[in-house]
Amino acid sequence: MLLTAEETARAARFFTDGITCLATRPVRLMEVCGTHTVAIFRAGIRQLLPAAVELVSGPGCPVCVTPNEYLDTAIAYSRRPGTIITTFGDMLRVPGSESSLMAEKACGADIRIVYSALDSLAIARDNPGQAVIFLAVGFETTAPTAAATILQADKQGLTNFFVLSAHKLVPPALKAILATPATKVDGFLLPGHTAAISGLEPYRFVAGQFGVPAVVTGFEALDILQGIYMLLQQLQQGQAELQNQYRRVVKTEGNPAARDILDQVYQPAGTGWRGFGEIAGSGLELTAAFRRFDAQAALPLTVAGSREPAGCRCGEVLRGLITPPACPCFGRHCTPEQPVGACMVSVEGACAAWYKYGQGR
Ligand code: SF4
């Protein structure tokens, strides 16, 4: 249901007044998703909140959490003769250990930006003598499309299409955060789009096992204000539940059809996250039936010596330990034009959002 401007303003006032009343002690809330981080800045929500309510970003920007080891591997593949790399555009500028995909492209590597994983199949068909490797980066939201692409490649009998999978699942990263005593989080705004695929079940442990309130939240300013309001209501009443603010999109059972496609092609596996290291069961690898599409299985190569950029504190930003201005590089050596780390590159990166939309608080 669409609200009029007057109704929207009234609802926003209701939630901000409510938040102010409920903020009787300092609380630290994590917006897990990069889309939330950007929406919060764009709508000026930080400025609407009382000082007692602190918002901290989490590990929900897929480009940011992809470690340099993966980037270095992608760069090594881009240097492999007879290889075309296909990727979403925001991976291009992320600095690897010694180079970036952008720098490799400038030096002549065949790296093509695609807007959907499916675009890679046409490139593979048009270049039968080349290996086409799609950089499969993203969470539960994008993984089903990559899985559908692999099913299509199988159907079309393509033998020169491969994926380099860095797909990640959000719940295991939340568990890693909750298991780290240094990260103090009183409540979570959970990403609505990943829950739309997975459903609510994978997030129940946040409240059930760790006793921390969590609200699956949409991406409009009103959604976010309501999500914060719901978290503060729980905290004031001493409750810890998983609630769904985004019921117009997120169903309890999620999207079984998308999960079915995913389960045909992928299975959970351990994978590395920037700032966290390897998290068990947090990645997706191809099942045996589709492993021939796995770039690393079909075209093995070895990359050694990956390291994070000197001085970059992306890992701490992604774990909610610090906010970007606490990084000594922020706005000095590290800007969106000259990024040092991934969090300053991606449009969903916390450092880029803090830099672009002001450093109010
Ligand atoms: Fe890394 Fe730059 Fe963010 Fe610092 S400001 S954490 S160097 S991306």
Automatic annotation (TrEMBL):
GO MF terms, alphabetically ordered: 4 iron, 4 sulfur cluster binding; carbon monoxide binding; iron ion binding
UniProt record, GO biological process: protein maturation
Keywords associated with the record: Iron, Metal-binding
Protein origin, superkingdom: Bacteria
InterPro entries: Hyd_form_HypD (IPR002780), HypD_1 (IPR042243), HypD_2_sf (IPR042244)
Protein family: Belongs to the HypD family.
Protein name in the entry: Hydrogenase maturation factor HypD
